[in-house]
Every structure is written in structure tokens, then in C-alpha cells.
């Protein structure tokens, strides 16, 4: 697989996921998130304290089924100001869809986590309500990041401007300097897909 083909394949995979999530946000979807301390299976656990996640795979006979159903995804420990959790991760391209393991197990999809070489990471960022606002920390990573804002408001800072974001907005960060500022008192929830990328220059 050529470098160009590999990058396009990764981009297509993540774009499909982001499109579905954007539709959910724009159509008043019911996704809610916070930090979960335990995982449950086989029942509805949506609401404060969890992100509802389903993983569909194939059995040895090629029949599809829900391998990991209604699992509450744990976030960052300690009740920090900014919380997050991994929903899924891949570590090669093409992605290996065999096996029945949980690709989010032991992951770290919170702030600052990266997908690794040839990888992708799919996670959420949550800023709980009732806290003071934050100041941006300007940084950049060797990734392409797709953000879908599902709830609340935030400001994205670049070297030249400020972008005020609300639910339904989408941001693509292509390895450029940026920083986030979260509004005081309001909850903020976003889904983030990060793709391994060639570092931007300068």
C-alpha cells in the first residue's frame, strides 16, 4: 500500500465515523457523557456517568452481531477538570477487523493522547458543568484531528484568530498550533478522532 493510499484509507475511515456523529448532534441526538467508574453489559446505561457504545463484529461463520454492547466507557480518574475516555483505537493500516478483543481496553483517549504510528484513536472529551473557565494551552501534534461538538460551548484559539464553537460545529485540526478554552459553569462534550499524520512544517 502506497503512502498516499494509506493516508486516504485512514481519512475515509474516520470521516465516516465523524459524519454519523455529526448527524446525531445536528438532529438532537441523545448522546451524553461523563466519567463512568464501572462497565455494564446488556442494559441501557445512557445518561450522566457514561457514554453508550456498541461494537459490531462477525462470528466465525461471518454472521454479524453486537460483540460489546451497552458498555459504559471509563474516563480519566481522579475527577479532573477535563475528562476523557477511549471509545476505540487501531494500530495499523489496513485495520485488522479480526478477533474479539476490546480495542479501547487500557487506552487513553483523553487530552493529549495520540494514535501512534499508522494508528487512529476515537474518544471523547468532557468538561463537567459548574467549574471555572479555562485558558488555552497552545500546542500541536503530528496528527489530523476531527472534532464534533455535541454539547456546550468552547473557543478554539489559533495563532491568528479565535473561533467560538457550539453544539453541531465541526473542527478539523491539521497538525497546526491551537488551544482550547472552555466556558465557565457549562458542560462541554465532544467526540474526537485522531489520525497519525506527517508532522506539519515549519
Report what the structure shows.
The protein has one helix at 3-26, and strands at residues 55-58, 64-68, 83-90, 120-127, 143-151, 153-157, 162-166, 170-174, 179-182, 188-196. It is mainly β and 202 residues long. It has a single domain, classed as Sandwich (Jelly Rolls). The longest helix is centred in the first third of the chain and has 24 residues, at 3-26. The protein has a five-stranded antiparallel sheet, with helices on one face. Strands 7-6-9 form a three-stranded antiparallel sheet, with no helix packed on it. A two-stranded antiparallel ribbon has the order 1-2. Strand 1 (55-58) and strand 2 (64-68) form a beta hairpin. It is 12% helix and 31% strand. It is globular and about 55 Å long.
CATH class: Mainly Beta
How large, in whole angstroms, is the Cα Rg?
17 Å
Q: In what order do the strands lie side by side in the largest sheet?
A: 3-4-10-5-8
- Averaged pLDDT: 73
Q: Quick one: biggest sheet?
A: 5 strands, antiparallel
Backbone shape: globular
Classified in CATH, the superfamily is Jelly Rolls
The count of helical stretches stands at 1
* Percent of residues in beta strands: 25-35%
Structural class: mainly beta
Helix content: 10-25%
H/E order of the elements? HEEEEEEEEEE
CATH architecture verdict: Sandwich
- Oligomer classification: single chain
The total number of structural domains is 1
